Amino acid sequence: MDYMMEEKFIIQGGKPLKGEVEIRGAKNAAFPVLSATLLTKETCVIENIPLIEDVLKMIKIMEQMGAEVRWTGERAIEINSSKVKASNLPRDLVKKFRGSILLAGSLLSRFKSVEMPPPGGCVIGARPIDTHLDAFRQLGVKISSEKGLYSFSRKSLAENKREVVLREMSVTATLNMMLFSAGFPEKTVIKIADYDYQVQDLSSVLEKMGVEVEANGAREITISGRSKLKGFKHKLVNDPIEAGTFIVAALATKGEVLVKNAELSFLDLFLKRLKDFGADFQILDQKTIKVKSSGKLCMDKVQSLPYPGISSDLQPELGVLATQAKGPTLIHDPLFEGRLRYLDQLNKMGANMVFCDPHRAIIYGPSQLMGIEMPSSDLRAGSAMIIAGLVAKGTTTLHNIYQIDRGYEKIEIRLQKLGADIKRRIKT
Fold first, then answer.
1. Each residue's pLDDT tens digit, 303-315
2. Known catalytic residues?
3. From CA 250, how far away is CA 254, in angstroms rounded?
4. Residue 313, annotated ligand binder?
5. Known binder of ligand: residue 95?
6. Are 26 and 237 in contact (CB under 8 A)?
7. CA separation, residue 107 to residues 39, 113, 187, 309 (Å)
8. Is the pTM of this model over 0.85?
9. 2 pLDDT exceeds 70?
């Protein structure tokens, strides 16, 4: 394959990871919290911001719309959106990552109308925004589309309907409806809602702004908003997906890693299944886990499901781990039809597997993986292929690592501190 000038990772595998790693703020929690600052004209403070590509793009979008942004520390910012204009939305940046769709809810709540292109992001299937559009329409929003541009407009607050049933359990659609409803004084009921870490973190922020948020066990969230919302100070939740990535990397390389600042409460089933598979780890406190060198892992099934199930974002990492486990492991991702594409690369590395359909595959382990040259097709596939490279014999060259930088902050430096032989290079 002919790769253009780009950055790449060169990995020499076979070394167990050893040491300590601290988990950073969650990028998927940063997007809705940044969007929430658009709901108020008061100053907002956000701490624990991950310094990664997509989050910095989101901040740049807000600046170009007129927000005043001041960095008060390495990972802390003050934002005042009193001068923001929806008409200044930079369409070129919006098209580059999926998290930008959350701007629709906030801007529509505050300005009554907004025009924006569909968002970009990882290519892991169709990933349409139909669920968002359908939900907005249920709440009285008029939407039209022409020449790749969506136009949203709403009536006065009192004229909008107050209940929405999501057509699927979507994290981003849940967040968008929460942001949109926050500016309405009446109650809004969101049914078939997701309640993953991003939703819980945004709930905390909205409550600080004066919104009443109530969640029950029936996948239902009630938002009682206000026409005038307050500013807030908030520390972003640490990224449970990043924590899961380092946990699997330690297990796959038969290492010993202390993972700190991990939001383990969002990884209950993930950790339970690892324990079932024979993984050796010790939970020291609510945010610290010590992963030890395992004996023989024996996995049976990995199925990704909405929270509190195992996140689809961690399914590729577990697929790599399955290549090192004894016997067959069924990998089932019912959420995204393209999430298993990374298995094509694992197959080329020597993994033994059978593809059942776009959502299912069976991996037979253990297999000695061999280093190859390959692309990073998306963010989570990229992080999984790093783990595969760390396990493999020989040299693995991973291209298109821009995808990985979108979700992991300086991952190669943090892995180097754990003893990994991984280098970032620029192809000339």
1. 999 999 999 999 9
2. 122
3. 6
4. yes
5. no
6. yes
7. 7, 7, 19, 31
8. yes
9. no
Contacts of 28 (CB under 8 A, 6+ apart): 99, 171, 197, 198, 239, 241
- Whether the link from the prior residue into 366 is cis, omega within 30° of 0, is yes
CATH architecture of 27-233: Alpha-beta prism (3.65)
The pLDDT tens digits of the residues spanning 188-239 come to 999 999 999 999 999 999 999 999 999 987 899 999 999 999 999 999 999 9
Instruction: Give the residue-averaged pLDDT of 47-59.
Output: 96
Cα 127 to Cα 180: distance, rounded to the nearest angstrom: 21
Residue 98 labeled ligand binder: yes
CA pair distance 136, 336, nearest whole angstrom:
23
Beta pairing class for 233-235 and 44-47: parallel
Question: Which structure tokens are listed for 230?
Answer: 């307050």
What are the tokens at 55? 């989050």
d(CA 415, CA 403): 17
Distance CA 331, CA 315 (A): 8
Predicted pLDDT of residue 337: 78
Measured N-to-C along each axis, helices 379-391 and 315-322 cross at an angle, to the nearest 10 degrees, of 20
* CATH 3.65.10.10 domain extents, the chain: 7-24+238-426, 27-233
Task: Give the model confidence (pLDDT) of 229-240 as tens digits.
Answer: 999 999 999 999
Q: Provide the percentage of residues in the chain whose pLDDT is more than 90.
A: 87
Other C-beta atoms closer than 10 Å to the C-beta of 140 total 16
Give tens-digit pLDDT for 73-121: 999 999 999 999 999 999 999 988 888 999 999 999 999 999 999 886 5
Give me the amino acid identity at 274.
L
Query: 27 among the known binding-site residues?
Result: yes
Q: Which amino acid is at 72?
A: T
Q: Which two tokens stand for residue 233?
A: 């100070």
- CATH of 7-24+238-426 given 3.65.10.10, 2.102.10.10, 3.10.450.50, 3.40.50.1820: 3.65.10.10
The b/e string for 269-287 (b: 16+ C-beta within 10 A; e otherwise) is ebbebbeebebebeeeeeb
CA angle centred on 325, ends 319 and 326, rounded to 5°: 135
pLDDT of the residue at 119: 83
Q: What is the pLDDT of residues 140-199, one digit of tens each?
A: 999 999 988 999 999 865 555 689 999 999 999 999 999 999 999 989 999 999 999 999
Measured CA angle at 416 (ends 311, 341), to 5 deg: 35
Cα–Cα distance measured from residue 379 to residue 405, given in angstroms and rounded to the nearest whole number: 8
Give the bridge partners for 116, in sequence order. Answer: 150
